[in-house]
Structure of Acetate kinase:
Amino acid sequence: MSPASTVTGLPTVLVINSGSSSLKYQLLVPDTGEVLASGLIEQIGEASGRINHTTGDHKYVEETRIDDHGVALAALQDQFAAYGPNLDEITITAVGHRVVHGGSSFSEPVVIDDAVLAEIEALCPLAPLHNPAAVAGIRAARERFHVPHVAVFDTAFFSGLPEAASTYAIPTELAAQHKIKKYGFHGTSHEYVSRQVATELGVPVADLNVIVFHLGNGASVSAVRGGRAIETSMGLTPLQGLVMGTRCGDIDASIYMYLHNVADLSIAEIDTLLNKQSGLKGLCGDNDFRAIDQRIRRGDTAAKRAFEVYVHRLRLYLGSYAFTLGRLDAVAFTAGVGENNPMLRAAATSGLEHFGLHLDEGRNASSTKHARVISTDHSPVKIMVVPTNEELAIARQAEELVERLRP
Ligand code: ADP
């Protein structure tokens, strides 16, 4: 029997997602998905920081200086003390941490001890923007919450990719020496959504071949056969693959050298250019799909072109992943753009009736928030919208692991 929260009578998990200048948290009940509180601490390390704390229907906003992740965790506890729920009345059974890069070391969630933390830190060269923040967040949280802390890795779902899919065609020894391979990201979301598809269709995961498009500001696609990922679009870093909000996705690797030699940009400048100033933003100046949508409706040609480049790339992946799977049962759209933009979903799947994809325009246009099928009843391939919930997935994985290890 596991310890329980006195508020819900069920185990409760605190999920922490530490970014370099922000920290998101959620206190939730893995069994039911009930969110007891959530928050966002922003502008860590800047002159003035901002804390948003939500519990029930109440939202609280505070401006205060947040020097580092240690101060952020203190602020998090202060929010609970001031606005609730009262952490003294809740037994938090685990803290789940989102960690972006697990390299080849971590293929599943793991309870964090000093050795695990050192290994996550050793992976910082592979994710220089993300893993240092996770390490800082974990350190600070371990000092304040004396319960098991579990790391859930964005790369884990893709750790079993077939070698042919994860191997770059560069000299083998060099790749091995520097750990260069396709790791993939957004794995927690791809795993969660692919399982939700099975639940929604009433089919065992083992019998299902599905392509999941996670289309947020970052965007990735995966091919999942029988619950196991066999392909994904992000690579050594999240820069590869689909056109994204500000990332270019796939390009000729020589563009790096060309920009260096011809445009006289430094490696650091090119890195910033391709990660932060490219993608939809580079093509039309906007990376928010709502703005692009409105501009297209007003006849803006740059926005229309950006949309077409985005859709063209996406359809290339749809086709190649369908062939890689051999048989396709469902295509699922998730995250901000995938869940909310019917125009994109229509453009991505139109004209593919010959391949078994029949979109139902009415269902596609509906804006309900729950998982649903948007293809026709007779469509051989189901087209679906499945809201992702990475916090719930992390909480469930953390709770399951802690429960399994409990004496
Ligand atoms: P991330 O977590 O990667 O920052 P999100 O999953 O929140 O990204 O997705 C952000 C994208 O989703 C933005 O391009 C935004 O315009 C789009 N988006 C969010 N909500 C809506 C909506 N209601 N309608 C259309 N697009 C939306």
Observations:
- The chain is about 40% helix and 20% strand.
- Residues 216-218, 245, 288-290, 335-337, 340-341 surround adenosine-5'-diphosphate (CB under 6 Å).
- Residues 211 and 223 are 5 Å apart (CA to CA).
